[in-house]
Amino acid sequence: MTAQLIDGNALAARTRADVARRVQALKARGITPGLAVILVGEDPASQVYVRHKVKDSEEAGLHSVLERHPATLPEAELLARIDALNKDPAIHGILVQLPLPRHIDSARVLEAISPAKDVDGFHVASAGALMTGQPGFWPCTPYGCMKMLESIGYELRGKHAVVIGRSNIVGKPMAMMLLAKSATVTICHSATHDLAAFTRQADVVVAAVGKRNVLTADMVKPGAVIIDVGMNRNDEGKLCGDVDFEAVREVAGWITPVPGGVGPMTRAMLLVNTLEAAERS
Ligand code: GUN
């Protein structure tokens, strides 16, 4: 059996088109959703991510503001900028690109963002809302993974989902989202003994480690759904995920490719969150 692909590019395109339609409806009521992206320093990967976020926003009709600051920006000045954006009625979403320079306390910065504008979903209030099933913003990557599962009509209730990775940005919120859909959830991580024993039982595997070939074909139950959050480079410098894609696709039922899977959906969900921040305002 060869797995069916879950096409993140196509789903993201549909998601962006839907956002663009809803943005026009809001604009007709005199509200233009606004996203502020703050970049501190010159990290090359962050510059690319931020450029994508601004381009996506503009194409969807959002008002988008990019603030660039030198790596030497004092933390107090960054907190003052966030405070000003929290109070700015033209801004509905605030995103501070991570990682921040070492002299800045990232946790303090993320907590300074108003939860009502926390479109990254990284604030403790957003994490708490997700955990307790209350309204709030969900982190874009796991939210995009949930949309991919939804797009294939996958019923999670009673299924065993194994999440590999326990980051605050992906693994932990992913587990909460799967649990909210009544899956039985196992979180595996770097200290897990015999990872394969868990993944072989899984109906759904979400791989979010950041290391190549974490999931190989012998670790996968035939027909399982495989969501690959990884973004790595192989020996030829080509983008690849955490999953041994060519081998695993011969065993799995569904699989997300890298590139063209979770990545574009992560970008699209930021637009969804910003739109919804404006709709709620
Ligand atoms: N750095 C890498 N990914 C992300 C993300 O999704 N949000 C923010 N703010 N920073 C990041």
Automatic annotation (TrEMBL):
<dbReference type="InterPro" id="IPR000672">
    <property type="entry name" value="THF_DH/CycHdrlase"/>
</dbReference>
<feature type="domain" description="Tetrahydrofolate dehydrogenase/cyclohydrolase NAD(P)-binding">
    <location>
        <begin position="139"/>
        <end position="280"/>
    </location>
</feature>
<keyword id="KW-0554">One-carbon metabolism</keyword>
<keyword id="KW-0378">Hydrolase</keyword>
<dbReference type="GO" id="GO:0004477">
    <property type="term" value="F:methenyltetrahydrofolate cyclohydrolase activity"/>
</dbReference>
<dbReference type="InterPro" id="IPR020867">
    <property type="entry name" value="THF_DH/CycHdrlase_CS"/>
</dbReference>
<keyword id="KW-0521">NADP</keyword>
<dbReference type="InterPro" id="IPR020630">
    <property type="entry name" value="THF_DH/CycHdrlase_cat_dom"/>
</dbReference>
<dbReference type="GO" id="GO:0004488">
    <property type="term" value="F:methylenetetrahydrofolate dehydrogenase (NADP+) activity"/>
</dbReference>
<comment type="function">
    <text>Catalyzes the oxidation of 5,10-methylenetetrahydrofolate to 5,10-methenyltetrahydrofolate and then the hydrolysis of 5,10-methenyltetrahydrofolate to 10-formyltetrahydrofolate.</text>
</comment>
<keyword id="KW-0486">Methionine biosynthesis</keyword>
<keyword id="KW-0658">Purine biosynthesis</keyword>
<feature type="binding site">
    <location>
        <begin position="165"/>
        <end position="167"/>
    </location>
    <ligand>
        <name>NADP(+)</name>
    </ligand>
</feature>
<keyword id="KW-0560">Oxidoreductase</keyword>
<dbReference type="InterPro" id="IPR036291">
    <property type="entry name" value="NAD(P)-bd_dom_sf"/>
</dbReference>
<dbReference type="InterPro" id="IPR020631">
    <property type="entry name" value="THF_DH/CycHdrlase_NAD-bd_dom"/>
</dbReference>
<comment type="pathway">
    <text>One-carbon metabolism; tetrahydrofolate interconversion.</text>
</comment>
<dbReference type="InterPro" id="IPR046346">
    <property type="entry name" value="Aminoacid_DH-like_N_sf"/>
</dbReference>
<protein>
    <recommendedName>
        <fullName>Bifunctional protein FolD</fullName>
        <ecNumber>1.5.1.5</ecNumber>
        <ecNumber>3.5.4.9</ecNumber>
    </recommendedName>
</protein>
<comment type="subunit">
    <text>Homodimer.</text>
</comment>
<keyword id="KW-0028">Amino-acid biosynthesis</keyword>
<keyword id="KW-0511">Multifunctional enzyme</keyword>
<keyword id="KW-0368">Histidine biosynthesis</keyword>
<feature type="domain" description="Tetrahydrofolate dehydrogenase/cyclohydrolase catalytic">
    <location>
        <begin position="6"/>
        <end position="120"/>
    </location>
</feature>
<dbReference type="Pfam" id="PF00763">
    <property type="entry name" value="THF_DHG_CYH"/>
</dbReference>
<comment type="similarity">
    <text>Belongs to the tetrahydrofolate dehydrogenase/cyclohydrolase family.</text>
</comment>
<dbReference type="Pfam" id="PF02882">
    <property type="entry name" value="THF_DHG_CYH_C"/>
</dbReference>
